[in-house]
Design a protein that fits this description.
single chain, transmembrane helix, diacylglycerol O-acyltransferase activity, Acyltransferase, WS/DGAT/MGAT, about 800 residues, elongated, 23 helices, alpha+beta, Chloramphenicol Acetyltransferase, transferase, membrane, six-stranded mixed sheet
Length: about 800
């Protein structure tokens, strides 16, 4: 029987023992996660951003990564958008010129308003224009610098920052563009409605017109431009308004660092001094310029929210639950690790993988949507992302020497808690090299709101193909693309939805039972009520010493077994495959509790076991029906303490039989629907109150995969390991995936709560004992009538 040793990234190297004890687990450096350019987004300044949107403090760029480095500009495919943005700017500038040159303005009225402003400032003792103008007078070099600064830098800095935000696809760009436009239009409106002469043009005053004396060619300070504009464009100061805008935009921008923000603040200070010293503005003009930005900022934010909401739809309640419960230390990311065999051909390249995904992305609409954050009174929403940046979503990295499975598990452990960009569709794919001869891996990380475990499998299958040429040992009726993805009844390790203790019936009867279970909340209210009563009677989970606050780090453990051997063991013991997995987890948890200095006997591990509510079969493309979260959960008790794992499996089956038949499953599904109907604040509170260690102390998920060989870019898939996240104060999750006669088990643990090496060793030993030939004599030679060979929760 083929077995892969479990591994953990969080312990020092340990020599492998022939008895199946500890195995090598060297430290693996941080994953190659770059600070790549974020997509341009609608900003929501008043909305709460989840703390996980910030980058992990240990993130750094791996020297062997391919793609766009941090902050690199991206112009490919954006020519049309560039033309549109320039056209918007020219249109606003045209409005300004139209007001400046097209309106008939009384010079005497403009002078009178300027004189009134100056009189008010002198009365308030804030008339700083005259002393600053006098201080600059006579210093020719400073006068020239001031004239050039006034005439040029506000244009260069303003549109330079706007261009940088656009080129780097900063999510702040849309807000920055809209707020600048609104600020400018407010100023133009004021110029039209309340034209005011600047101090340097007031008759009877002794201001020196420094810009007119030293102006650069075609600047605002002289020639025809000055004659047409500067007589009435004093209030408000757009120079100062744009400088204030630059400070605010740089503070909001994700791609502007401390140096850029400091430059913006310095530019604002210099601009304020220059516009006063050159006698182009009054102090009150500066105040009005800042007020224009203060008005424009929320207006632009509202424009962004309106534009976003007009093309969005609410995140489904079952999906939104995982957006509510995630925290900075516990992001809710699911995924898979696909092991590819490259012995028969060349390994896939990064460009080939990107092209392959781009060609099939249209069939995976979930991967083209980003999450619009929830407000205090508003639910999360999906928004379509028209331009998916595959240079960010699909990456490549090389494991450091010596590489291997242990280093890969360490990488996956860190990727599983590395925050995804909240301004992009929440998923990423990594092509991982350095595993050893003839092996590469593809790591898929997806937010739980996009898909549950089977949803990830469905997404992954869109990228897979049958072997070419087809395997001659594969039956002819299984070689067609439309039959690439089987219905659940073809795979006994699939989670079943049933109210019978005997498990799912084969074929059409199983489909009918599944459909009835899915409709139960509507058609069988008595069953739902009974199930709700049972759930209430279950109460809180028995306390366990392993539960508690989680840290940031994770350990990821993998092991692979023969699926026929696992199914045979479940047959012999007359238990479900899920019960077999629970028994192995119970043995490992017993060892972990004992290692923590506690007595495991008498303790109970309450496991949340996700159960699919998906209809059996495939869609018209041969893919299991849809991503999203189409599951309910059973809470099954696993007894701890010293006992053989086969006896533990039998006890789990006896305890679980009543719970599987009690209506708890449809009641759980109904409860999720009812929670989703609540207003956003109540839904958020309800989700966080139930999805935590008070009600379960582990997550154990048993899933079906493909029962036949598949390949990616010509490379056969050998093993596919699931990634299952933790819950609040729940330090353990175990996922198992049956894939082409391989039973791939992966555990995610918090190393601060339990020893990953000890847990992995005990889990491997329990699975080895359960599938050993020595247990054959204890099993019946055939299953009882009407009972399938193996079934699962």
């Amino acid at each position: 029987m083929s077995r892969r040793a479990l591994s953990t990234p969080d312990r020092a190297h340990v020599t492998a023992s022939p008895a199946g004890g500890p195995w090598p687990s060297p430290q693996c450096p941080e994953p190659a996660v770059e600070r790549a350019s974020r997509r341009r987004r609608h900003e929501h300044p008043t909305e709460h951003r989840h703390p996980t949107e910030h980058r992990h403090p240990t993130e750094h760029r791996h020297p062997t990564e391919h793609g766009h480095p941090a902050g690199q500009v991206r112009f490919a495919g954006r020519g049309v958008d560039a033309v549109c943005q320039i056209a918007i700017g020219l249109a606003i500038f045209g409005v300004y010129l139209g007001v400046a040159h097209g309106l008939a303005v009384s010079r005497s009225a403009a002078d009178a308003r300027g004189a009134d402003l100056l009189a008010v400032e002198r009365w308030l003792h804030i008339a700083a224009t005259e002393p600053l103008n006098n201080a600059l007078r006579g210093h020719t070099a400073l006068e020239i610098l001031a004239a050039w600064e006034y005439a040029t830098t506000y244009i260069i800095t303003t549109f330079g920052l706007l261009g940088v935000l656009w080129a780097r696809a900063d999510p702040t760009y849309r807000w920055a563009r809209d707020s600048l436009a609104v600020t400018t239009l407010l100023g133009v409106a004021c110029f039209a409605l309340w034209p005011t002469a600047p101090p340097r043009l007031l008759p009877g005053e002794r201001f020196v017109d420094i810009v007119a004396i030293h102006h650069p060619p075609l600047s605002w300070g002289g020639g025809p431009v000055s004659a047409g504009a500067n007589q009435f464009a004093a209030m408000p100061s757009l120079h100062v308004a744009w400088a204030v805008w630059m400070v605010v935009a740089s503070m909001r921008a994700r791609r502007v660092g401390p140096a850029g923000r400091a430059f913006g603040a310095a530019h604002l200070g210099v601009t304020m001094l220059v516009v006063l010293a050159t006698a182009n503005h009054y102090v009150l003009d500066l105040v009005a310029g800042g007020a224009a930005v203060a008005v424009a900022a929320p207006v632009a934010s509202g424009m962004g929210r309106w534009a976003t909401a007009s093309g969005t739809r609410r995140v489904a309640a079952a999906d939104e639950l995982f957006l509510h419960v995630q925290t900075a230390t516990n992001p809710q990311y699911v995924g898979g690790v696909a092991m590819l065999d490259t012995s028969l051909g060349p390994a896939p390249t990064l460009d080939a993988l990107r092209r392959h995904l781009a060609a099939r992305l249209s069939a995976m609409s979930r991967l083209t949507r980003r999450v619009v954050p929830a407000g205090r009174l508003r639910h999360h929403r999906w928004a379509s992302d028209g331009d998916i940046d595959l240079s960010w979503h699909v990456r490549e990295t090389h494991l450091p020497a010596p590489g291997g499975q242990v280093a890969l598990d360490g990488l996956v452990a860190r990727l599983s808690v590395t925050p995804l960009d909240p301004d992009r569709p929440p998923w990423r794919i990594w092509l991982v090299r350095g595993l050893g001869a003839h092996r590469v891996a593809v790591v898929v990380i997806v937010h739980h709101a996009v898909a549950d475990g089977l949803g990830v499998v469905a997404l992954l299958r869109h990228l897979l193909d049958l072997p070419s040429p087809p395997d001659p040992h594969c039956p002819a009726d299984l070689r067609t693309p439309t039959d690439l993805h089987p219905s659940p009844d073809l795979h006994p390790s699939a989670d079943s939805v049933t109210t019978s203790p005997d498990g799912p019936a084969p074929g059409p009867e199983r489909a009918r039972r599944l459909a009835r279970a899915a409709r139960t909340p509507v058609t069988r209210p008595a069953t739902v009520v009974s199930g709700l009563v049972s759930l209430a009677r279950d109460g809180a989970a028995p306390p366990m010493t392993l539960s508690g606050p989680l840290g940031r780090s994770r350990a990821y453990l993998t092991t692979a077994w023969s699926l026929p051997a696992v199914r045979s063991c479940a047959h012999r013991l007359e238990v479900t495959v899920t019960d077999l997995l629970l028994a192995a987890v119970g043995s490992a948890a017993t060892a972990a509790v004992a290692a923590a200095g506690e007595e495991p006997s008498g303790q109970v591990l309450r496991a949340a076991v996700p159960v699919t509510m998906r209809m059996p079969g495939s869609d018209q493309h041969g893919v299991p029906r849809g991503p999203g979260n189409l599951t309910a959960a059973l809470r099954l008790d696993v007894p701890l303490g010293p006992m053989p794992p086969d006896r533990r499996a039998e006890q789990i089956t006896r305890r679980a039989r009543d719970r599987r038949a009690s209506g708890r499953l449809p009641a759980s599904a109904a409860a999720l629907r009812l929670m989703g109907a609540l207003p956003a604040p109540l839904h958020r509170a309800a989700a966080r109150s139930v999805y935590r260690a008070r009600f379960f102390t582990a997550i154990v998920s048993n899933m079906r995969g493909a029962p036949r060989p598949l390949e990616l870019l010509g490379c056969p898939l050998r093993d596919v390991f699931p990634i299952v996240p933790l819950a609040a104060q729940v330090p353990l999750s175990v996922g198992a995936l049956g894939w082409n006669d391989r039973y791939c088990v992966a555990a995610t643990v918090d190393p601060a709560r339990l020893d990953p090496v000890l847990f992995g060793t005990a889990l491997r030993a329990a699975l080895a004992e359960l599938t050993s030939p020595e247990l054959t004599g204890r099993a019946r030679t055939s299953p009882p009538p009407g009972r399938p060979l193996a079934r699962s929760a």
